[in-house]
Amino acid sequence: MTLTIDQLATRHLTLGASEIAAVAGLNPWKTAHDVWLLKLQLAESSDNVRTRMGNRVEACVLAEYCETEGVEAELMGTVVHPSHGWMSATPDARIKGARRLLEIKCVGWRMAHHWGTEVDAIPEYYRPQVEQQMEVCDVDECHVAAWIGGSEFRIYTIKRDRELAGILTEIGRRFWHEHVIPGIPPPVDGSEGARRMLDKLFPRNTKPMLQATPELSGLAARLREAKVLTERAEAEQAAAQNKIIEALGDAEGVAAPDFRITYRADKAGKRRFLFKTKEAA
C-alpha cells in the first residue's frame, strides 16, 4: 500500500521489511548502497507511474482476496520490532480474527515467470520482506495475494522460518550498527548500486588530478587485465555462438542432458540465441 507522508518522513529511522532483501544482496534492482543512501537522507525514494498504478490496483486485489477467502482484513501502519528498535515492517494488512498477515503484489507480465504455481513459490527477492514482516509482528503465517500479468490471481501461503529470520536479522543489525549509525558506506563492489552511491557521495570534481599511488597503480593494472580478459572472452563467445548457429542450420535448436540451445524468432520476427545449462533450465 502507499506509505503516508509521516511514514515516508520517518523511513530513515528504521530498516523496513521492503529493504532487507537489498541489504542481504537478494534484490536484483537495489543494493545495500541504495538503502544506505536513503537512511542517511542522501537520496529520495523513487516514485513512478508503475508504482502509483500498482498502489491503486492493490485495493482491488485486497477486495478479491477477502471475497475469495471469506475473511475481513484491516490495513496496517508501520510496526517497530519490540526488541530491535532499528527493525520495522509495514504489512499491507492483517486478517481479522487470525494471526496472519497479508501482503499484496501486482506483478507485471514481464516478471510473471518468477512466480511459481506451488503454494509458497514466491520469488526469493520477496521472501525476506515477508519474513521480516512476520518477525516484527510475531506471527507465523503470511498470505501473499498476487495479481499476475493482469490476468491471474494467486494466493501464496508463507510459513515463518525462524532460522531464516535470524540470519536476516543479523544481516540487518550489522548493516544498521556498522554502516547506518556511524555513517560509514558499505564496501564498494561492482554493482550499479555502488556506482550510484559513489555518484551521490562525489557528485562533481573539486580537486585536480591525483598522482598515482602504488594502490591506484595496482588497481589500474587489475582493470587493464580484466578488460583484456573480457574482450577475449566476448570474442570467443561470439565465435562459438556463430559456429553453433551454422551447425543448427534450419533447426530451431539443440538439447542435451546438461544444456539446451534455441535459435528461433520471437514475436517481432527477430531470431534470438538462448543458451541454458541444466542448472538454469
From the structure above, extract its key features:
281 residues; alpha+beta; Lambda Exonuclease, Chain A; five-stranded mixed beta sheet; three-stranded antiparallel beta sheet; 8 helices; flat
CATH architecture of the largest domain: Alpha-Beta Complex
Q: Tell me the helix content.
A: 40-55%
Total of domains:
2
Q: Under CATH, the topology of the largest domain is which?
A: Lambda Exonuclease, Chain A
Mean pLDDT: 92
User: Rough shape?
Assistant: flat
User: What structural class is derived from the secondary structure elements?
Assistant: alpha+beta
Number of helices in the DSSP assignment: 8
Give the C-level CATH assignment of the largest domain.
Alpha Beta
Q: Could you explain how this protein is built, in words?
A:
The structure is a single chain. With 281 residues, the chain is an alpha+beta fold. The chain has two domains: 5-198, Alpha-Beta Complex (Lambda Exonuclease, Chain A), CATH 3.90.320.10; 216-277, no CATH class. The chain has eight helices and ten strands. A five-stranded mixed sheet has the order 1-4-5-6-7. The radius of gyration is 23 Å and the shape is flat. The protein starts with a helix and ends with a strand. A hairpin with a 7-residue loop joins strand 2 (79-80) and strand 3. It is 40% helix and 18% strand. Helix 3 (32-39) packs parallel to helix 7 (192-201) and helix 5 (127-137) packs across helix 6.
Concise synopsis of the structure shown:
This protein is of the alpha+beta class and 281 residues long. Helices cover 40% and strands 18% of the residues.
